[in-house]
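tool=predict chain=A
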Amino acid sequence: MGILAGVDPSTALREFLVSRRARLSPRDVGLSDDGPRRVVGLRREEVASLAAVSVDHYIRLERGQASRVSDAVLDAVAEALRLTRGERQYLRNLARPGATTARERAAVRPGLRVLLDAWGPPAYVVGRNGVIVAWNRAATRVFLDFGEVPPERRSIGGLMFGDPRAKTLYADWERKAGETVAYLRTEVGKRPRDPDLAAHLRELASTSPDFVRLWSAQAKFDLAHGTCRIRHPLVGALDLTYESLHPSDDPDKVVIAYAPADAVSAAALALLDGEP
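tool=predict ok
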């Protein structure tokens, strides 16, 4: 099963490529369909042909021997498999793993803290391995008071899969949980040998069947922005949009900034802002 092996870049690379072959049919890529197949989706030799590389080169890549494959081959395979921008980056992270040498700072820099506080709608900062490291007042009103959550559980994975309130809070919990898993997969791509990340994934896998199911489904990888509906106990439905903002001086952190999607949600946020 792919979770415990997920921090092994070779295994993660193989699982990812197999899943992307399986989602394409010959007709999707302009090939003739020759009837029943022994495998789902494209064959290895078909991907190699589409990428204009040798079958041996592609098999080497799918076996996790990426160090013996050039960047040009990676790009050609990504094109052949119709990978999205997020998926292409994930492929490159797995094929060219490099340890992040900068020590993660537990606290955000003062300028970012000022920005959080000035941003009226909810916003929070996610650090390495999905840990929530900072938030503003509105985030505690809309989601939960992160300060009351024990630090070891204060992560997007821990809250989504370990806090029963999440399934009540998010109207489309399944989609939001899939996005959380996808984010953790990108973390694997950045730091495939991180022991803390490996321990976090093992814990989620051992306590949440939902996490295991969604991880095995190879969730999507493009998470720069989106929408969500919150079922708030005080003001009812909140429709929010969000954007992911990456501080240029700290690649291990991302700011998730929300905004109301309509006038009704804006009014509801204003009501919550007035709560003591």
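The chain has a mean pLDDT of 84. The two ends are 47 Å apart (CA to CA).
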